[in-house]
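Help!! Second protein's tokens look totally different from the first
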Amino acid sequence: MRIQGFDHVECYVGDLEASVAVLCGAFGFRVAGRESPDAAAAGLRSMLLRQGQVDVLLTCATPADRAASQYVQRHGDGVTVIGFRVDDVRQAFSEVVAAGATPLGSPVFAGTGEHSVGTALVSGFGDVAHRLVQRTGLGGEFAAGSIEMTRDERGVRRGLLETLDHVAACLPAGQLDATVRYYHDVFGLTQIFDERIEVGGQAMLSKVVQDRAGSVTFTLIEPDLSRDPGQIDEFLQAHDGAGVQHLAFKTADIAGAVRAISARGVEFLAAPADYYRALEARLGALAIPVPVLRELNVLADRDRWGQMFQIFARSTHERRTLFFELIERQGALTFGSRNIKALYEALESERAETSQLT
């Protein structure tokens, strides 16, 4: 089976309007569709948000939607489905189930003839599932029959954010290697990165898996139980198990995106105090000057293909679990190991500040 990339992300939320306000008002998404009249009559509420090639489906936890209600009750708002685009949903479903995925929903089709969407649902990690999506001639439509697109949004793709670059997930200790094997055996993803990160007395293990085209990437993290409990342990406790820690959105202009999003009230994590001191000496001349990076708290790194810039928003989640990343890649294909450590040092600083306030 060949994955063609991320298709969409679905989140279950307790307050649909509040979630829409954050993603639209702060991060620049637009409402591209909402539940169809038939779905509304059944008590189901959803909104499709779109920016660039990123589709985020928000589904409200209503009494009519027991799955969403149970998810939000256990985990709080969070990512519950990550969609993969495929050529043939029936064949893909058959192949991944034969390879070890648990079937959660057999292939179904909406629309007819040359204008249809086929979907199937299979297991992922924790309570996160994967929707296999086959699209045929639908243009800007998302889910014919269940999501009614707004009149002016069919085919419209614009914004500061371009694509979903990667998904980061926290796993209970001892599950990392098995999860890497699962994504290799079932979806054909290959491990491209392996890192042990130490922050103070805590430590964590991280592995990155990616498809052959580099269009689907997961950063998988588990705590190192030989060290002190830390951030990953706290995520797993607050989230009640494995789950998505952050979504990374790719942008062509991270400085402009940070300025625009900051002006809308989003706060970003501050880099460690000495991060920029030797940055240019370590990396050489950068496409974004170090003073600008320092001003905006943007992290930088390079690999043999080019440069990479990234920044992480502070979590506004009530359980302080899910948050968002912005990343600009100027040729770089990998993940800077020093940036990963800098992220968790920044998270540790925020964690310490929060502990002092409680």
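Here's the second one for comparison:
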Amino acid sequence: MINFKPITLEDKAWVDQLLAAGNKRGCEYTFANMFIWSKAYHVKVAQVNGYLVVKLKGINGICYMYPSGSGDIKSVILEMKQDSVENQHEFLLIGIEQQGIRELEELFPGWFTYEEEPDSSDYLYDVEKLAELAGRKLHGKRNHINRFIESNLFWSFEPITVANIHECYALDEEWYKLNQDNQFRSDSEEDSAFKRALDHLFALNLEGGLLRLGGKVVALTVGGRINQDTYDIHFEEAYKDINGSYAMINREFARYIKAKYPEVVYLNREDDMGLPGLRKAKQSYYPDAMVMKHKAAYNG
């Protein structure tokens, strides 16, 4: 039996080590995402034969993330299958990329039925593109930013710090009141996850940026590293009645990441959850790649 435990901050060091060994680009393969969403999805973790094994309960019911680590993954999958038998639930793997499918088919031919999950697939953007917004396709984004600058002479961008994080809580609280019916924030779980991210921002090695207008914070964003060349944008909030505020915080944070981490190639702006408005917004920046994800159900 796998000795699963609820994820805590004390698990960060060993989880980070095994995530680094797996070197995945999916947004769920970060300690921060596992931790801040742990209450919503009942996330539990275990170390099995050099791999991180994650068990959770989401829209697919009880399931396992595809393991991350190095070594004999076959033995790990077999132990996960046995755990599902002992606990009398389906053996279902999620967050599987094409390489994982090839691996499973080589080790366990015909064992699984695979299904693509487009609503869970992540959008990847070249950090240079989001920082500069060059080219005809992004002409509209540049126009939004130009109108923001022309209309607001006294604006500034700054990193989130201990000194200004209290202003982020205030913006989030007001933003949530204004967007309770917004499809992007349809329940309290995301609200809880965002506050959890702010509560433990520095312990999780997360960072963020905020946009000021006349001294008032009008937009903010929070993110963190996934692997050597990919950076994850966890959250982004802005007052939508301030024209260009979303485009501006997006560009300024991309510039901040580009300058701070020159080795980063991609910004992962996560999935669209199948929401038409969110999908349109993410597609409007013309992603350079997608992290396509699948689930695998055991056929036994």
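Reply: Different proteins will give different token patterns, so don't panic. The first strand starts at residue 5 and ends at 6.
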